[in-house]
Every structure is written in C-alpha cells, then in structure tokens.
Amino acid sequence: MKCVGYYLILLGVVLTGCGDGGKSAGGKAVVPVPGTVVAQAAMPVTGDSLNNFAFAVTVSADSLIESGVYAVRASYGFDTANGRFVMPKGLKTYEIVMKKGVAPYTYVVGFTTSADTTFNDYFEITGTRTSIDMHYLKAYTFE
C-alpha cells in the first residue's frame, strides 16, 4: 500500500512538470526538457474507405531546445516525415499553439507571446496521399 502512495506522489510531480512549452513562470522563460511534447493533433483521412488512416502531427522540444529548435513528426497513413523548425530570434516567453489549417489535412504551428495572445502562424504541415510537406509561413523578429 505504501508503494501506491509513492506512485501517486511521483505521478503528481511528473504531471505538474509537463507541458510548459516555453511559457513564462513569473516573467522568466521556461525551456521544456528535450523530448517534451508541446503540441499534437490528429484528424481522420476521409477519402479512403478501405483503411482507417489518420493525419497526425506532433511537435516536441528538440535536443537543441536552448536555441529554440523544435522537432516535428507527421504521419499520413503509413507515411511518416520528420522535420525541425527554429523559433524567431529574440522571442523570450511564448507558448506553442497548433491549429487546423484551411487546406485539407493541414496544421499550422504558431505561437502566442506573454504580452499578446494573438496567434502568430509560423510553420505549416500538410499531408497528402503522396507526400508530407513542411515549411515556414512567415518570418518574425523580436530583437
């Protein structure tokens, strides 16, 4: 029974420490641990009635997160693609946000700042039957 108590305490500590994704804590930037998932989303692929495919995107902190690098993993059915993007220079406190794009099977990764909650679109991931495309949408500078 004692083990269950320790397990619950450990679980509570782990859950409260997850998901900071660059948010500020008392005005100070919090850098996520490499490998921490900061955004993820998925949608079913509706054009294929034979398979139960999905288009899924996961954004996580890269091993170079101190430089603002994030890793992107996208899958469309059995196809998988990996990529990276770098947050704008001079951006100190921000939160990574992912929204569904206008085009089919598209997600837009952006950010909000502590000073302004406006969604700033930054990086786009699009999946099709034949390819997965990742590219920057805009350039920002905060220096």
What's the helix and strand layout?
Layout: H1 2-17, E1 24-25, E2 28-29, E3 37-44, E4 54-61, E5 69-76, E6 79-86, E7 94-100, E8 106-113, E9 120-127, E10 132-136
Question: How would you describe this protein?
Answer:
Residues 1-25 have low confidence and may be disordered. The protein has one helix at 2-17, and strands spanning 24-25, 28-29, 37-44, 54-61, 69-76, 79-86, 94-100, 106-113, 120-127, 132-136. The chain starts with a helix and ends in a 7-residue tail after the last strand. The protein is mostly beta strands. It has one domain.
Mean pLDDT: 83
What's the number of helices?
1
Which strand order do you get reading across the main beta sheet?
3-4-5-6
Biggest sheet features: 4 strands, antiparallel
State the shape: elongated
The gyration radius over C-alpha positions equals 17 Å
| Terminus-to-terminus distance | 54 Å
Which percent bin holds the helix content? 10-25%
- How many structural domains are formed by the residues? 1
User: Which structural class is indicated by helix and strand composition?
Assistant: mainly beta
Counting DSSP E segments of at least 2 residues, the number of strands comes to 10
Strand content range: 35-45%
